[in-house]
Amino acid sequence: MSILITSDWVEFNVLKELLEATDGNLASHITALEKVGYLEVRKAFVGKKPNTSFRITKEGKKAFKDHIDGLEQLIKKSI
Which fold has domain 2-78? Predict the structure, then answer.
């Protein structure tokens, strides 16, 4: 989510490389995030090759912000 929140559309292979994830692992996470409406999927062809890209939705941005806010509160309590 931190990659998606700082970008517009991010290609599957770029995410896979940045996260050092396997195809299956990344696909599982993408599916879960798509199910709850946190990201949007775009499928297209570049030449004859399929190309899948993702971007964070408004709901995803809010959920990510809420998550970061929660982490900040935990840190403040432990200091």
Answer: Arc Repressor Mutant, subunit A (1.10.10)
